[in-house]
Amino acid sequence: MQDATFAVESSECLAIIGPNGAGKTTLFNLLSGQLKPTSGNIFYRGQDISGIPAHQRIQLGIGRSFQIAQLFNNLTVMENALLAVQGTQPSRFQLLRPITGNRQMFARAKDLLSYMDLLEYTDMLVSCIPHGAQRKLEIVLSMASDAKLLLLDEPSCGLTVAESAEITSKICCLKKDVTVMCVAHDMELVFGIATRIMVMHHGKIIIKGEPEKIRNDPTVKEIYLGTGKSV
User: Fold this and answer.
1) Is residue 27 part of a domain?
2) Residue 89: burial class (beta carbons within 10 Å; 0-12, 13-18, 19+)
3) What does the chain look like in DSSP terms, one character per residue?
4) Which one in 40, 121, 164, 220 has a CA-CA gap of 20 to 30 Å to 97?
5) CB-based contacts of 100, cutoff 8 Å, min separation 6
6) Please, which residues bridge with residue 16 across strands?
7) Sign of torsion, CA 20 212 154 177?
8) Could you tell me the maximum CA-CA distance found in the chain, to the nearest angstrom?
9) What's the mean pLDDT when you consider all of the chain?
10) For the segment 5-30, what is each residue's pLDDT rounded down to a tens digit?
11) What is the total count of domains within the chain?
């Protein structure tokens, strides 16, 4: 990453595009705490989080999905959701806790699965559900902490056109107080959800702006899609 200076407004959806190797996933690794910056600072809601580890960033309200699904394949869909919800609770280190707490976690997990239309898979092993459902479950896990910032890495990767459209709709209908940053190669998804788009190339941010500006920018056409092609 080189001089990657930018800000994301509350409740906006910033899509990040660029060719393979542009630095998009590296940027997400820095924001979520998988990597530490060698220089510069990362601020979240006015707090410098540059030195805060990944698990503490989750507690602050930063959720992330990955390009390659990070799920427990030998557990059920509900068990995956419950683990994600429990991992964000203050009582997660308590061996004994009130049964009401378990009920609240179950209700939260069920609400998240319902939002992503996954209730029909509740009792199925993750390894046995369709790929599209796995992608949606990963978004459920990223939302489990009641995240205020969602980092979605290729949420439509491997999905059919219909499944991608469904994911796009779900992202667009998130609570208005949720900020979304989305890395994607799927231009239908990008232009379907983004309030702003940021283009990266060789670890640099080369342009950012509203979708129509990016669609018509000649540099984007040349570097990202090839000279003369439109987004």
Assistant:
1) yes
2) middle
3) --S------TT-EEEEE-STTSSHHHHHHHHHTSS--SSS--EETTEE-TT--HHHHHHHTEEEE-SS----TTSBHHHHHHHHHHTTSGGGG-SS--HHHHHHHHHHHHHHHHHTT-GGGTTSBGGGS-HHHHHHHHHHHHHTT--SEEEEESTTTT--HHHHHHHHHHHHTS-TT-EEEEE-S-HHHHHHH-SEEEEEETTEEEEEE-HHHHHH-HHHIIIII-TT---
4) 121
5) none
6) 183, 198
7) positive
8) 64
9) 85
10) 899 988 899 999 998 888 999 999 99
11) 1
Q: Are 12 and 194 in contact (CB under 8 A)?
A: no
| Residue 154 belongs to a domain | yes
Q: How confident is the model at residue 41 (pLDDT cuts 50, 70, 90)?
A: very high
Q: What is the pLDDT of residues 107-153, one digit of tens each?
A: 999 999 999 999 999 999 999 999 989 989 988 888 887 889 999 99
Question: Does residue 5 belong to any structural domain of this protein?
Answer: no
Residue 84's nearest CA partner among 45, 117, 111 is: 111
- The count of other CB atoms within 10 Å of the CB of residue 61 is 17
Residue 130 lies in a domain: yes
CATH number at 186 reads 3.40.50.300
- CB-based burial of residue 220 (10 Å sphere; 0-12 exposed, 13-18 middle, 19+ buried)? buried
| Residue written as token pair 């896990």 | 141
Whole-model pTM?
A: 0.81
Residue 181: domain span: 13-225
